[in-house]
Design goal:
This protein has 15 helices and nine strands. It has helices at residues 12-21, 28-40, 54-65, 80-83, 89-101, 106-112, 123-130, 148-160, 191-194, 207-217, 223-237, 247-259, 267-272, 281-291, 294-303, and strands at 44-48, 69-73, 85-87, 119-121, 137-141, 162-165, 169-172, 178-183, 198-202. The strands form three sheets. Strands 2-5-8-1-9 form a five-stranded parallel sheet, with helices on both faces.
Length: 309
């Protein structure tokens, strides 16, 4: 079993309890795959719609383990210089000039400037080197935003937790970090990368679970209002929007309702706070079209809300 004395968990149940202590409400399957990722020293690939809590999972695991979170935010064009490392050229030039003034031999000088001291550590290398003292949580966030070429860069890291630098050699982690990759599934990720990972799909929560999440994160929100928000969001997600609101939007909305001293949802409150849950003009227009349909409004206000008040 890995871990320090204050971060160890010896069962799925103990991990689940630690996550609950951090106000994170995992289902059994997610707690299980997190436990296995930690125990088996395997990267974990989390996939799901935006806003369901994939990134938060990594942050919470770092808190549970009492270690640092190292995050690599992926984007199109991400390359080795920004993901792995690059040389600190200004510092190398300065070292060369100082060496020349001191009469250092050029051959020796050429060797000294290509050492770890002159490396700018990007997230992947930082995670490898940090793991020598205490294994961090490495979050490779939204990998589907990156190019296929970047996936190839990850293969060595995820296979052996090591990075090869021509001028230095291979830097290898003494203890493997917990690696969590996330994807919104905007494109398919290559099988070679997925084979190196455990996999879990995070879906939108059930209304009951979403109510628990809201109540855990914001105890000041009443149970009734938390359930109203959860039920409303569930119905909203069944509609065709550019971006369906996730749990993050539910929490934002609940916080806004609390700030406005609203104790229940009504038509005026919903209309006034739509910007908390729908973030595209097209989605707002779509909502207003739906709202003007008697059946939709009846479902949202009567079936979902009024019976809870």
């Amino acid at each position: 079993m890995r871990g320090t004395e204050n971060s160890m968990f010896d069962s799925i149940e103990s991990l689940q309890q630690r996550l609950l202590n951090e106000k994170y409400i995992p289902d059994r399957s997610l707690a299980t795959v997190l436990y296995l990722a930690w125990t088996l020293k395997k990267p974990l690939f989390l996939e799901g719609e935006p806003g369901v809590g994939k990134t938060e999972t990594a942050a919470v695991m770092a808190r549970v383990l009492g270690t640092e979170l190292i995050r690599l935010q992926c984007y199109e064009g991400l390359d080795a210089n920004h993901a792995l490392y690059e040389w600190n050229y200004p510092r190398q030039i300065l070292a060369i000039k100082l060496g020349e003034q001191c009469g250092t031999e050029k051959e020796l000088l050429g060797k000294t400037i290509f050492t770890e001291e002159f490396l700018i550590k990007r997230p992947l290398l930082e995670a490898i080197l940090s793991a020598r003292d205490k294994e961090p949580v490495l979050l490779i966030d939204e990998i589907d935003r990156s190019d296929e070429e970047f996936e190839a860069l990850l293969l060595e890291v995820l296979s052996d937790f090591q990075i090869s630098i021509p001028e230095i050699g291979t830097l290898k982690a003494v203890r493997k970090p917990l690696v969590i990759l996330t994807s919104n599934r905007t494109r398919d990720i290559h099988d070679a990368l997925k084979r190196r990972c455990l996999y879990h799909w995070i879906d939108y929560p059930t209304p009951q679970k979403e109510r628990e999440i809201i109540s855990a994160r914001m105890p000041a929100v009443s149970e009734s209002l938390a359930l109203q928000v959860a039920l409303f969001m569930q119905r909203l997600r069944s509609q065709d929007f550019l971006k369906r609101p996730g749990v993050a939007e539910s929490l934002d909305w609940a916080a806004a309702l609390l700030a406005l001293d609203r104790t229940s949802l009504d038509e005026e409150t919903i209309q006034e706070t739509l910007g908390c849950i729908l973030k595209y003009r097209e989605d707002l227009m779509r909502f207003h079209e739906l709202w003007n349909e008697t059946g939709f409004r009846q479902t949202m206000l009567t079936d979902v809300l009024e019976k809870l008040c």
